[in-house]
Write a structure and sequence with these properties.
heterotrimer; A alpha+beta (157); B alpha+beta (283); C alpha+beta (734); B: 283 residues; alpha+beta; Uridine Diphospho-n-acetylenolpyruvylglucosamine Reductase, domain 2; Uridine Diphospho-n-acetylenolpyruvylglucosamine Reductase, domain 3; Enolase-like, domain 1; 3 domains; five-stranded antiparallel β-sheet; four-stranded antiparallel β-sheet; 25% strand; globular; C: 734 residues; Aldehyde Oxidoreductase, domain 3; Aldehyde Oxidoreductase, domain 4; seven-stranded mixed β-sheet; six-stranded mixed β-sheet; 28% helix; 26% strand
Chain lengths: 157, 283, 734
């Protein structure tokens, strides 16, 4: 059974017909809507590469049925400069050199943006760093990512 | 993963009906989906109908004094974020915030964790020490059952055909603690866990251990050895020894049976110390 | 600290960078392997009819190959599909393609294969429960055998003050690049065209030609952005299959692995057992015996390189008077051994360092002074008789000692500080070429290597170009071209990029500057600069804007062109010391000495790294940000090898932990603060004496953590990884 689905993706309304019930948000974004920025890694919720925001909160899109986010607002790495928070996170990552191959980067940017939105910069550092335990990186060893997060936390919110 | 229909009932009655009208294994509910989607992908289950619980009014946190009723589809992150949960049920807070990662906890639910009844669940041992009850709705009405009776073995619970978990009731705020042993500091499945709680009204301890076969269990003998208040170091030692003797630990890719057994004593000692230091422990 | 400046940051931060897994071509079919259901067996029948009957599905089995393959010479030892005997679980038996991923999986499920089970050789112990005797090299389970010796080994052992013998075991570890292998292939007229995530586009072309029986010239490989390589994407893998299916269907074909398949089919470091015997007299190492059993999975007999290469890392970086080494590459029913980052060297360093530390302690000698004394210096001879080139390890070790002394005074109870060191040899000598084009506005370096993430291409080569041209960074572009467009390069592996292509750039720039000087009527090389927004060249008395010096044709095509290449054969070993098999000389001697402070939980055995310092022998640091990033990344990966990573194979040859939950790579919370210091001045083979840094940082990490753990709690680890349970056992908690 498939049916109509309505979402907002990066601020734009999206109406989809014929989305099969088993379809994952990850696949809808990548293959149906062409938003390839969100990456497919493990497909089992263990690597965080597929992290997007749904209604401002981080979400593992590989473990989410698209129909379950009906009516929701999805934010991906492709969101434009109008999302000031994501823009700040991008800038902090670029300044800190917090990426190498870049495959984990969209997921990390979304996870960091989600944490900032949820917790604000005043939350304890440990909470931020623990909160990123679900995002794997194999290239940077995380040190530069931590520097990016530290820089974000010391900015005026 | 095969095709299925997804229905999104607005009321508990509709949800129960959607569940009940198909045969066993043909219909399954989905809350956060973080366990269910694995099972679908691996082919372990192949339902014709998946019943989304997202429209049901079960994302609730209701306080009656310090007693707490948690709606079964409340995301774990909401539980974690509540400062009163952290203060009144520190063991639960500690267990919840260690389930997976933040993004996972935005979807994962208490109900889903209970129904999956994994021997590696972090939440079930804590709920056992809090004397939690489950409120179930089903085709033959509502009923209440203790977590201890509800969880039987891996993937086996007392849930009857057509039934859903509506909420989890914690009757009494307790100083409590949860200690785990696993590989990573976060986002990992535990090898063995110990939950401890002290009931101020009964002046008695509860101790539960997880990472054991066939299911997490309360250890009343260990709890009894801890006494009626702050235990002596000797009492803690005896409780720890008793804990290690009583249960059958799992051997798997994460740890051997021997290692888990060895750790129970240490974790129990730490859990007791932390409980004694928690708010609400009688001075 | 300088952050790495990454020109690729923009496209990676806005989601527009296209990786292999993102490739999406209209009309594309989705392909999937038909996997062998057991690790060893004889195929009785392969029934593809059920799969073929499904709508839109194409299936290729062994019987279809003759009509699809090319007429040229093929590597017959490496058939694309198993057709008689299955030799590892999930080995490809065939390939399906369907209009969607779901339908491809359904097609695979519809294949019926009957296999007669054969006994499974799952691990080293089942082939050699004891150390093999002298006739072992005749065993069908042996893919390679190496042996070398020098000096008076027997008499040294017989007359030694003390002989210390130990056995070590190391686990299988996986590269775990976050992006699984993926490619899309199409047939365009006469051209077999594939876009793929790979470390080596030219390597893929060469290998695909050999497997498909078509000339290299008819294959074009175009690399996408790569989501991590670490050796796992160093050679062809999926591409020949995708190309074949493109030929069979006339459609573009996507072939990508799921992450579970990445683990199950991955060609990587496999388990090993090492026996070390060391004879010490008068406080000096007089003789060493090293025996290695290396699981090489399904590797082909006679094609093993791993064993001879690895043995060298079990002998160095310490002076050895007399030695005897023997290594067996043992075949088991697993996928073949493949390169990881600094393949097997971190495991070797763990063994060497732990053993020599132990030897010193057994003799009541200071373990660090003992090792330092025996370290190679420039001019020393390796065990195989090669002269050690400029080598900064002794200095790195001394700096590590100073840090360790400081940390020890500060470390609380239950903490321990340890030093580990090691060396690596980069593959700088393997061939690479570049083509430079200098126009009025910018210098473009066309090269055939994709930036896989380390920064060696976009940052490192940029930095080299800046140094040799004098032009500012924003006037230099490093451009990647496919195998049809760019000059040849061996690929990104062996930490060779900066060295090989850096040297090639040097050569090309020299040519360019000479050409411009000539056009200015002068001798020598022209100087380049930017003035009034344009590039200028100056030589002798004359100075001119570049645009003036270009020919009509050059102006039209973008600028004056110069080529450069680099290919340097390595050093030589003393072949008289070789008794059997092949050993390999080193190109560069790159050292690293690290310090770790760890805390060990005495009740659980859990090891936590509290802080870490890395001293890297770098020759010359060309791009400080990228260099720092490589050390941080290499150390983190090494911490995984040290503490948590272990691929566990069952007796049935099944990978038990085939996912990222139970194959644990480090997470953010597990990485300590890492301080990095580069030791410059011991020149390497690269431009300005640079030494490659992609791999050296990982080499000493497990050794460093192991020795710090011993210092913290007395547990002497002889197995990797140092899981809490293993440490608990070593502490006799169990």
């Amino acid at each position: 059974m498939t049916s109509h689905l309505h979402l907002t993706v990066n601020g734009r309304a999206v109406d989809l017909a014929d989305v099969p019930a088993p379809e994952r948000l990850l696949d809808t974004l990548r293959w149906r809507l062409g938003f390839k920025g969100t990456k497919e890694g493990c497909r089992s919720g263990d690597c965080g590469a597929c992290t997007v925001l749904v209604d401002g909160r981080s979400c593992l899109s590989c473990l989410t049925l698209t129909h379950e986010v009906e009516g929701g607002a999805v934010t991906t790495i492709e969101v434009g400069p109008e999302d000031a928070l994501v823009a700040r996170v991008r800038e902090a990552f670029e300044k800190a050199g917090a990426l190498q191959c870049g495959y984990c980067t969209p997921g990390f940017v979304m996870a960091v943006a989600g944490l900032l939105r949820e917790r604000g910069t005043a939350a304890p550092r440990e909470e931020f760093l623990e909160g990123l335990g679900g995002n794997l990186c194999r290239c940077t060893g995380y040190s530069a990512i931590v520097r990016a997060v530290d820089a974000l936390r010391t900015e005026v919110p | 993963m095969g095709a299925f229909e997804l229905v999104t009932p607005a009321t508990a009655e509709e949800a129960v009906a959607a569940l009940q009208t198909l045969g066993p294994g043909e219909a399954t509910p989905i809350a956060g989906g973080t366990n269910l989607l694995f099972d679908l992908d691996s082919g372990r289950i192949a339902p014709r109908r998946v019943i989304s619980l997202r429209q049901l009014p079960w994302r609730t946190l209701d306080w009656t004094g310090d007693a707490l009723t948690i709606g079964s589809t409340l995301p774990l992150r909401s539980l974690e974020d509540d400062p009163r949960v952290r203060a009144k049920y520190p063991g639960l807070y500690e267990a919840v915030r260690n389930v997976g990662g933040v993004a996972l906890r935005h979807r994962a639910t208490l109900g889903g964790n209970l129904v999956r009844a994994s021997p590696a669940s972090d939440l079930i041992p804590v709920l056992l020490t809090l004397d939690a009850d489950l409120d179930l709705v089903g085709p033959h009405g509502d009923r209440r059952v203790s977590v201890d009776r509800f969880v039987q073995a891996s993937r086996r619970t007392d849930l009857r055909p057509g039934e859903l978990v509506r909420s989890v009731r914690l009757p009494e705020a307790r100083p409590s603690a949860f200690f785990w042993q696993r590989v990573r500091p976060a986002n990992d499945i535990s090898q063995v866990v110990v939950a401890a709680a002290f009931s101020p009204s009964e002046r008695s301890w509860r101790v539960a251990v997880g990472g054991v076969a066939p299911r997490s269990v309360l250890l009343p003998e260990s709890a009894a050895k801890l006494g009626t208040g702050r235990p002596t170091p000797d009492a803690v030692r005896r409780a720890a020894e008793s804990a290690a003797e009583r249960v059958t630990f799992v051997t798997d890719v994460r740890a051997s049976e021997e290692y888990r057994r060895q750790l129970v004593g240490t974790l129990l000692g730490r859990a007791v110390a932390s409980t004694v230091a928690a708010e609400g422990f009688p001075r | 600290m300088t952050a790495a400046v990454r020109p690729d940051a923009g496209v990676k931060l806005d989601g527009t960078a296209v990786y292999g897994t993102d490739l999406d071509v209209p009309g594309m079919l989705w392909a999937a392997f038909v996997p062998a259901p057991m690790a060893h067996g004889r195929i009785r029948s392969l029934d593809l009819r059920g799969a073929r009957a499904l709508p839109g599905v194409t299936v290729i089995g062994p019987e279809d190959l003759p009509r699809l393959l090319g007429p040229g010479d093929r590597d017959l030892e490496r058939p694309l599909f198993a057709s008689g005997e299955i030799t590892y679980r999930n080995q490809p038996l065939g390939l399906v393609a369907a209009p969607s991923a779901l339908e491809a999986r359904a097609a695979v499920a519809a294949v019926r294969v009957e296999v007669e089970p054969l006994p499974i050789v799952a691990d080293l112990e089942s082939v050699f429960p004891e150390w093999p005797g002298s006739s072992a090299d005749a065993s069908p389970h042996v893919a390679g055998h190496v042996r070398a010796r020098h000096g008076n080994v027997e008499s040294e052992f017989a007359t030694a003050d003390r002989v210390v013998s130990e056995t070590y075991r190391t686990a299988s570890v996986h590269q775990v690049a976050l992006e699984p292998h993926a490619c899309v292939a199409e047939i365009r007229g006469e051209t077999w065209y594939v876009r793929t995530s790979t470390q080596s586009p030219f390597g893929v072309r060469e290998d695909a030609a050999a497997l498909l029986g078509v000339p290299e010239a008819s294959i074009v490989v175009d690399g996408t952005w790569v989501g991590g390589g670490f050796g796992g994407k160093g050679s062809s893998f999926l591409e020949p299959y995708a190309l074949l299916m493109a030929r069979a269907t006339g459609r573009p074909v996507r072939l990508a692995l799921t992450y579970a398949e990445e683990f199950r089919l991955g060609r990587t470091t496999l388990p090993a057992v090492v026996r070390m015997d060391t004879a010490v007299t008068g406080g000096q190492i007089r003789a060493r015996r090293v025996r290695l059993l290396l699981d090489v999975g399904n590797s082909l007999p006679g094609r093993d390189f791993a064993t001879g290469y690895s043995i060298g890392f079990l002998l160095g970086p310490y002076r050895t008077v007399s030695f005897e080494v023997e290594g067996y590459a043992v075949r088991t029913h697993k996928p073949p051994f493949g390169p990881h980052r600094a393949p097997f060297a971190p495991q070797c360093a763990f063994v060497v360092e732990s053993h020599l530390d132990h030897v010193a302690r057994e003799l009541n000698l200071d373990p660090e002074e003992f090792r330092h004394r025996h370290l190679w210096r420039e001019g020393d001879s390796t065990a195989l008789g090669q002269k050690v080139g400029p080598f900064g390890l002794a200095l790195a070790f001394e700096k590590a000692q100073a840090t360790a002394r400081q940390w020890r005074t500060e470390a609380p109870p239950g903490h321990g500080v340890g030093i580990g060191c090691g060396f690596w040899s980069t593959s700088t000598g393997a061939g690479g070429e570049v083509r430079l084009r200098l126009g009025p506005q910018r210098l473009v370096v066309l090269e055939g290597e994709r930036e896989i993430g380390s920064g060696s291409v976009l940052a490192g080569l940029s930095a080299v170009a800046v140094r040799v041209t004098g032009l500012p960074r924003d006037r230099i572009s490093i451009e990647y071209g496919s195998t049809a467009e760019a000059p040849f390069d061996s690929g990104v592996y062996g930490s060779r990029t900066l060295g090989a292509l850096g040297r090639a750039i040097e050569e090309a720039v020299v040519r360019l500057r000479r050409t411009l000087a000539e056009r200015l009527g002068a001798r020598g090389q022209a100087e380049l600069s930017v003035e009034r927004g344009e590039i200028y060249a100056e030589a002798g008395e004359r100075r001119a804007a570049l645009t003036v010096l270009l020919t009509e044709e050059e102006r039209a095509s973008g600028g004056v062109v110069a080529d450069g290449r680099h290919f340097a054969p390595g050093g030589t070993i003393d072949e008289r010391r070789v008794v059997a098999g092949s050993f390999y000389p080193y190109t560069d001697f790159t050292g690293a000495a690290h310090v770790a402070e760890v805390a060990v939980d005495p009740a659980t055995g859990a090891v936590r790294v509290v802080r870490y310092a890395a001293f890297q022998d770098a020759g010359t640091v060309v791009d400080p940000g990228a260099a720092q990033a490589q050390v941080e990344g290499g150390v983190a990966m090494g911490l995984g090898t040290a503490l948590t990573e272990e691929a566990i194979w069952s007796d049935e040859g099944r990978l038990v932990n085939d996912g990222l939950l139970d194959y644990r790579i480090p997470t953010l919370g597990e990485i300590p603060p890492i301080s990095v210091e580069f030791i410059e001045g011991f020149a390497g083979a690269g431009p300005f004496g640079a030494k490659g840094l992609g791999e050296p940082p990982i080499v000493p990490v497990p050794a460093t953590v192991a020795l710090a753990t011993r210092a913290a709690c007395g547990a002497h680890a002889t197995e990797l990884p140092l899981s809490a349970e293993r440490v608990a056992r070593a502490l006799k908690l169990l």
